[in-house]
Amino acid sequence: MQETRALLLAAGIGSRLRPYTEHWPKCLMPIQGRPLLEYWFSTLQKMGIHNVLVNTHCHADIVLDFIQRPSFVGWVKPSYEKKLLGTAGTLRANKDFFKDHTILLVHADNLCCCDFSEFLNFHQNERPPGTSMTMMTFETPAPSTCGIVEVDVDGIVYGFYEKVSNPPGNLANAAVYLLEPEVIDWIMKNPEISDFSTEVLPYFSGKIATWKNESVHRDIGTIEMLRVAQKDDCLLPIWPKDSWDKIFLTNPIHELIL
Q1: Is residue 155 assigned to a domain?
Q2: What is the dihedral of CA 87, 56, 30, 227, to 10 degrees?
Q3: CA distance 255 to 258
Q4: Residue ranges of the alpha helices (H) in the chain?
Q5: Does residue 206 form part of some domain?
Q6: Buried b (16+ CB within 10 A) or exposed e, 237-254
Q7: Does some domain include residue 228?
């Protein structure tokens, strides 16, 4: 069983969260007093994943300061993108880091609380034969705002509906995936591909297993949802206090979210 490595996508500009994101990155928005990325780092540690790449772009200097905290040095690495590459482009640019490994691919501007060990176990030991990736799904109360998927009796994806007005259901793509090396191999053979959702996923239709998150999954990309997330039932991450943490706790962003 090969080692699993992780890519946390944290480079977005957070346009729907303006004016909050004019001075603070979306991926470090406070959730119950802790920066969002800390939740992801805690999840990765519990999964036993110790090689993590975080792509950066917007407010890259702030995110880099966060990643360079003593608790994360040595196992979390930044990958700066002067120009956004798209998810497939980021995977391609870091092919040597991910080569021959299972990849946990995460859109890290979501709050996601569930049993990730079960997610990994399903992918490694229980996913249907012939599938190359496992997509986390969840039931959304607002299907027209999400990427909706259709699955067969084995839970394999065969249909995609990306933010359409009348999708045929409410089973949504959580934008959290486990990928096998053949996905990277295909991306490398198709250098014109950059978008994962619209270019990579459709190609692998029929080869995508699904695992349903029955707990918390929330896109904190709007001010309303960011405020709702402050009451979600997620365990708070615990990391040693340091100089970055002291600065963070006095940041005005906390007052804005209240």
Answers
A1: no
A2: -40
A3: 5
A4: 36-47, 60-67, 87-93, 95-98, 116-121, 181-189, 201-203, 223-229, 243-249, 253-257
A5: yes
A6: bebeeeebbeebeeeeee
A7: yes
What is the predicted pLDDT for the residue at 12?
A: 83
What pLDDT, in 10s, does the model give residues 97-108? Answer: 998 999 999 999
How many domains does the structure of the chain reveal?
A: 1
- Note the pTM of the prediction, 2 decimals: 0.92
Q: What is the pLDDT of residues 148-169, one digit of tens each?
A: 889 999 999 998 887 778 787 8
Strands, E, within the chain: which ranges? 4-9, 30-31, 34-35, 52-56, 76-80, 102-107, 110-113, 133-139, 147-151, 157-162, 171-179, 208-212, 216-219
- In 3D space, the residue among 51, 40, 45 whose CA is nearest the CA of residue 101 turns out to be 51
Residue 1 scores a pLDDT above 70: no
Query: Tell me, what CATH number does 26's domain have?
Result: 3.90.550.10
The residue among 173, 153, 152 whose CA lies nearest residue 161 is 173
Print the domain residue range for 95: 4-138+173-257
Query: Contact 14/59 with Cβ under 8 angstroms?
Result: no
**DSSP H or E segment with residue 200:** none
125 part of a folded domain: yes
